[in-house]
Design a protein that fits this description.
It is a single chain. The protein is built from 8 helices and 8 strands; from the N terminus they run E-H-E-H-E-H-E-H-E-E-H-E-H-E-H-H. The chain is α/β, with parallel strands linked by helices. Strand 3, helix 3 and strand 4 form a beta-alpha-beta unit.
């Protein structure tokens, strides 16, 4: 069964622990934690200190998505803040050596590691690294803002990644515009993890929303 990872970006931060308890009780598997720096993407969210606070009040898997320039500069802080997995954008690196160094560094600290691609980035850019990844994150919207419409070219990317992992074990995650309809398309294409923000946190019935994704 697919895992559901509500994006904490859509939570009510005045009632954060209450919201985290709510999504766990409603069947969420992971917490998706979007980090934005105002440079790599045109928005700012939050950093490692809030992640550390979250880690003290939930036992859900903490799925960190770095939408930042120079991921290596800050990765140790997210490791210390108890990230379960850390995913960086392949577009944030300037060369293959830096990508491999990032993957090895995160794994060395016992944390799962992923790479993400924007809608315009082809799956082929990931192929050299797939053997070493725990997760691949397909962005089905432009990263940086919630509430965007799902871009259907993500489906062919999921299918391609599913075909490429015949002898590999990475998870395929999808983020952006996920609801019951688009979630079903992603599941059918081979996705393992669905990230949903407003669809879960703003639902009248969060349990039903999460179940509709599964």
């Amino acid at each position: 069964m697919v895992k559901v990872a509500p994006s904490v970006l859509s939570a009510d931060f005045a009632e954060l622990k209450k919201d985290l308890d709510s999504i766990k009780n409603c069947g969420a598997d992971w917490i998706h934690y979007d980090v934005m720096d105002g440079h790599f993407v045109p928005n700012i969210s939050f950093g490692y200190s809030i992640l550390n606070d979250i880690s003290q009040v939930t036992d859900l898997y903490l799925d960190v998505h770095l939408m930042i320039e120079n991921p290596m500069k800050y990765v140790d802080e997210f490791i210390k803040a108890h990230a379960s997995s850390i995913t960086a954008h392949i577009e944030a690196f300037s060369n293959e050596q830096d990508i491999r160094a990032f993957i090895q560094h995160v794994h060395h600290h016992g944390v799962n590691v992923g790479l993400s691609i924007k809608p315009a980035t082809p799956v082929d850019t990931l192929i050299p690294y797939l053997d070493d990844l725990d997760l691949v994150l397909v962005m089905s919207v432009e990263p940086g803002f919630g509430g965007q419409k799902f871009q259907e070219q993500a489906i062919s990317k999921i299918e391609q990644l599913d075909q490429l992992r015949q002898e590999r074990s990475y998870l395929i995650e999808v983020d952006g515009g996920i609801n019951a309809t688009t979630g079903m398309l992603c599941r059918q294409a081979g996705a393992d993890v669905l990230v949903a923000g407003s669809y879960v946190f703003q639902a009248e019935n969060r349990k039903e929303a999460i179940e509709s994704l599964k």
